[in-house]
Amino acid sequence: MENYMGLTEEQAKENIKKYGFNEIKEKSVPIFVLFLQKFWGPIPWLLEFTGILTFLLKKYPDTVAIFVLLIFNGLVSFWHELSAQNALELLKKHLSIKAKVLRDGVWKEIDAKYITIDDIVLLQSGFAVPADVEILEGAISVDQSSITGESLPKSLKPKDIAYMGSFVVKGKAIGRVINIGEHTFFGKSAKLVQEAKTKTQLEVVVFELVKYLFLFGVFLIIILLGLSILRGFYLGDILPILVVMLLPIIPVALPAVFTLSTALGAKELAKNGVLITKLSAIESAASMDILCTDKTGTITKNKITVDKILPLGNFQEKDVICYAALASDPKQKDPIEEAIFNYLKDDCYKIEKEDFEAFDPSKKYSTAKIKKDNEEIYIFKGSPKVAPI
């Protein structure tokens, strides 16, 4: 193993000034801006326009009712999103990632936020990869399901890249940080998601509904206006009446009904452990025809299971699974070995294990030496391509 020194604390501080913190920045919106946003958009504009119109026509009770609906609509949506944001922030604090880094020649455990370019980091079983890291020495297996959707671990050796967002399931390696934060592979993907802006289904439906109702109202007004002119009515007397006819066409209570129903839906989902950050997400989910999503860990459990065992020769199924368990380490978080232990029904631990060599990503196998019925048995578990037989 090479004698790495890593960065000094001063070099690390200079790099942080130059490259920034190792974090994916989210667009933070001040609370008062978040509140004002609830009164800016197609649906609020509809209510505001109607409220101003009724005020100009001196229909003050209608004006009050419309603005009460507008404020109610905004407050319910604002309060729900603020509560969801607070819950997410609390969750992030509890899930903060730690990393082992070499600073001034000494290994230290620090928050991954303070990892910087050219830091030397230690990657070992049970740790998350804190940034994009080039492997310098050692070998590890990483779970990249959050990035690629692949359940099986990927083996990495020197000169390979361990990407931020991966999880080390086996082995130990030393690596050099080459990308941090938004410049990592994971960070670039997250930025694309943040920049994606689409109209909600509610906005589309309400706009279509109001558009056709409004056009129908304008059509009636044009006919009535033409008839009034032909009959010699004074235009100043007929215009207020025509505007009043237009008001009932605008569905002012519709947004409030939608907001209340989605808020109740979000409350029910919260009881089942589903955190809704935006009420509009419920509307969009309820009206979709096709859902495109990653499979692994989202609609599946991201867990491998033993489905069928094919014993060869005189061996039976219970022999194969038992020997496989004896050549595995229950302390490791390897998905294949976890599947073996979950399938195991017999107690194989009564068999004496004299020697054990854990799975090595560079060798791609593990071995065990057991004693059964006064007979020494050597067990090999791994890739058939590298089987020592």
TrEMBL record:
Keyword Manganese: no
Gene3D superfamilies according to UniProt: Calcium-transporting ATPase, cytoplasmic domain N, Calcium-transporting ATPase, cytoplasmic transduction domain A, Calcium-transporting ATPase, transmembrane domain
Keyword ATP-binding: yes
Stretches that traverse the bilayer: 39-57, 64-82, 212-234, 241-264
Keyword field: ATP-binding, Membrane, Nucleotide-binding, Phosphoprotein, Translocase, Transmembrane, Transmembrane helix
Subcellular location: Membrane
Domain Cation-transporting P-type ATPase N-terminal per the UniProt entry, residue ranges: 5-59
Lineage of producing organism: Bacteria, Pseudomonadati, Aquificota, Aquificia, Aquificales
GO cellular component: a single term: membrane
Protein name: Plasma-membrane proton-efflux P-type ATPase
